[in-house]
Amino acid sequence: FRRVLFRSWFERAIKETAKGDLQNRIDHDSIGRSFGYLAFCHARTDNLPEALSLCERAIAEHRQGDYHGRVNKASLALELRRAASYLRQLNRPAEAEPYESEANQLDPKP
Question: 69: closest CA among 27, 37, 38, 97?
Fold first, then answer.
């Protein structure tokens, strides 16, 4: 029950944040975090294909940065590593390599 509740909360957060603030600015980093949390919820229920898809959306949002276009490298690296992990669990290790490589360039800490 909790996972369903959290999923719906993150889905609403994504929709609301995507509308922007009073100046029509969108915090893509915040949307990326919500997609990341949503991906984690799906992964916990063994829905790895959906988790990977959501994680890729999180990465795309993180790449756009916050209201001012600033990219949080640590957050982006976390999502890249999470996508690589999901790919490895889906037995797609070759596809995981570029994600891990980019994550290590952004944030060398594992």
Answer: 27
What count of other Cβ atoms lies within 10 Å of the Cβ of residue 98? 13
| d(C-alpha 54, C-alpha 80), whole Å | 12
Distance CA 36, CA 24 (A): 23
Residues 40 and 67: their CA atoms lie apart, in Å, by: 24
Tell whether pTM > 0.90: no
Start-to-end Cα distance in the chain? 32
Contact at 8 Å (CB) between 13 and 33?
no
Both tokens of 32, joined, read: 């990326």
Specify the 3-state DSSP secondary structure of 21: coil
The pLDDT of residue 10 is: 78
Q: Are 55 and 39 in contact (CB under 8 A)?
A: yes
What is d(CA 92, CA 13) in angstroms, rounded to the nearest whole number? 31
